[in-house]
Design a protein that fits this description.
7-stranded antiparallel beta sheet; disordered N terminus; Serum Albumin, Chain A, Domain 1; 2 domains; 19 helices; about 30% helix
């Protein structure tokens, strides 16, 4: 990656994004965007970003993209305008995010993907989660004394790198749902990587606060200046190495990544980090397989909510939270009232108790998904919720399809280095894509212009607890448990209602669940739903977002028996909802994204 010095361009005006915006001014802004971001020319410009999400949602009548960076959103829109499908647009958006938001996702990582087919009204899910190298064992993250390694010590280097799954998954889904040629979807990212892009405030801040950015000379050269300091926001940089890698994949397909010189370079980087080498080999790369899996769907009032099943815990946990809220008249409660947040926290507490015990890679352990979502089982769990008092930490339940297996709760080390993309195309097809390299900047190893993940640290560091096996322990070829929760909501006739998802580590589940309640029960538009302060309970402290209403809410929840912790919560929700007049979209003001459409 090459650094080009230059000033930060002025941020585009946010005028017209408020309630007084008229239709002509919105049309002028879209026309300006189209002229600025052509498929071949516009994306080579280094663009700035808005100062935060608007009070009103974005609106469109044809199609829409919502993602974490305006440059990536415009790549997706360019593809839609060229006749591409929602899946095509998601691929183009993801490739640009790899370039401009490298701390969060990319081809060195993995993803989960939901698609909605407007013709068949079917939801399909695709698993591009990383896999452990074949030689990995359950003691991977234990030190010589048998104790778990320090997290940063485990992360930096080859030990934490799993076999990347993103490209195999996108290619598989493109074969099912793509319309434009695979090659065309990489051109916006290639053009921007070659011409240069501006370091955003968030990227600059992330570089500055992330440990060990000088782990290798390649990584240091990409993200630090000559004095070893983080690249400042406004610096223009190029990444010709990534452009060359993407061109190779665009021309030759995902096989060019998983076999040949790119796979060899990945294996050399992983095994060659002397202080913390990993076991990943070219053979591990060659045998990686993305998978089609059954969607995990369940009812919530008059809607059907669909998510990702194992190895993600996101879909099951979100459905369990919603099931916990269904007996209560959430619509009658004020958003962010103590009463509403108490119920959300208690339902989440129950879901996380089960998640921490049972959810893992179902190809390796028997995960009782049907039992965890069984109406009778859920009714018994929900009966534990007291509207007037917190139950405190709870034990996991015993779902009916448990099958006699007994697991121990595992350690949870997920970090919020993830991104989310929501897309709806002109035919009504939709994509919900959450992708990740795990922690910010992954393993800190950089190969051919892209970062390698540290997803192996999503496994439990301890393989056993009190003599019982942890379901999410490390095993060769296994996929680590995730909390990613790309979600699609349908009505009872299976017509599309909403596309939603977020980054945020294990807090993703809480972010998505509350956003669904805000949109479905409180009928808030996507932007208003995203803007609400977060509340998350992972079967421990009730965490509330530092910001508005903190003191009042904290005292009220304490009065209901909660142990409250105030936290900064860096979600990245991106939501699109179908309305009677078209599409409404929202982007998380906690990041730099936008929702845009025509």
């Amino acid at each position: 990656m090459r650094v080009l010095r230059g000033p930060l361009p002025p941020a585009p005006s946010r005028e017209g994004r408020g309630k007084d915006q008229d239709v002509p001014s919105r049309d002028r802004r879209r026309a300006s965007n189209r002229s600025r971001f052509g498929l071949a020319l516009g994306l080579v410009l280094a663009l700035a970003w808005g100062a935060g999400a608007a009070a009103d949602p974005a609106r469109a009548t044809r199609h829409m993209v919502a993602a974490a960076d305006p440059r990536a959103v415009e790549a997706g829109l360019a593809i839609l305008r060229a006749g591409g499908s929602a899946l095509d647009a998601a691929i183009a958006t993801q490739m640009v995010l790899n370039l401009v938001e490298p701390q969060s996702s990319g081809i060195g990582g993995g993803a989960f993907l939901l698609t909605y087919d407007a013709t068949t009204r079917a939801v399909a899910t695709y698993d591009g989660r990383e896999t452990a190298p074949a030689a990995a064992t359950s003691t991977l993250f234990l030190g010589p004394d048998g104790q778990p390694m320090d997290f940063v010590q485990a992360v930096v280097g080859g030990r934490s790198v799993g076999v990347p799954g993103l490209l195999r998954m996108l290619e598989l889904a493109h074969g099912d749902h793509g319309t434009l040629p695979w090659r065309e979807l990489f051109q916006p990212a290639i053009a921007l990587a070659e011409a240069g892009f501006v370091v955003s405030p968030r990227l600059g801040k992330s570089i500055a606060k992330t440990e060990r950015m000088n782990a290798t000379p390649v990584t240091a050269a990409a993200f630090l200046d000559a004095q070893g300091k983080a690249l400042a926001p406004g610096t223009t940089i190029r990444n010709p190495a990534l452009a060359a890698t993407l061109r190779t994949i665009a021309d030759g397909g995902a096989a060019r990544f998983y076999e040949g010189d790119i796979a060899e370079a990945i294996a050399v980087a992983v095994q060659g980090f002397a202080a913390n080498p990993g076991a990943l080999t070219v053979a591990d790369m060659a045998v990686y397989e993305a998978k089609r899996r059954e969607a995990v769907c369940g009812p919530y009032r008059v809607w059907i909510v669909c998510g990702m099943g194992p190895p993600s815990s996101g879909g099951v946990a979100v459905l369990q939270i919603l099931a916990g809220l269904e007996p209560f008249d959430m619509a009658a409660l004020t958003p962010d009232s103590p009463e509403a947040d108490h119920l959300i926290a208690e339902a989440s507490r129950l879901a996380f108790a089960d998640r921490n015990r049972y959810l893992a890679d179902s190809d390796f352990v028997p995960v009782p998904v049907a039992g965890l979502l069984d109406p009778g089982y859920l009714a018994g769990r929900v009966a534990l919720i007291d509207p007037t008092r917190s139950m405190g930490k709870v034990e996991p339940g015993s779902p009916p399809t448990q099958g006699g297996w007994h697991w121990a709760d595992g350690q949870d080390s997920e970090r919020p280095g993830t991104t989310h993309i929501s897309v709806i195309d002109g035919a009504g097809n939709a994509v919900s894509l959450t992708s990740s390299i795990e922690g910010p900047f992954g393993s800190r190893l950089m190969v051919r212009g892209f970062l390698l993940n540290n997803e192996m640290t999503d496994f439990s560091f301890t393989p056993e607890e009190e003599g019982q096996i942890v379901a999410n322990r490390v095993q060769g070829g296994k996929r680590p448990r995730s909390s990613m929760a790309p979600t699609i909501v349908l009505d009872r006739d299976r017509r599309l209602v909403m596309v939603v998802g977020s980054p945020g580590g294990s807090r993703i589940i809480g972010y998505v669940a509350k956003t669904l309640v805000a949109a479905l029960d409180w009928n808030l538009d996507p932007q208003a739903a995203i803007d609400l302060p977060h509340i998350v309970n992972r079967n421990g402290n009730t965490e509330i977002e530092d910001g508005r209403v903190v003191q009042t809410l904290r005292e009220a929840l304490k009065g209901l028996g909660h142990t409250v912790a105030v936290k900064k919560m860096e979600s990245g929700l991106h939501v699109i909802r179908v309305t009677a007049t078209g599409l409404e979209g929202g982007a998380d003001p906690r990041r730099e994204g936008v929702a845009e459409g025509d």
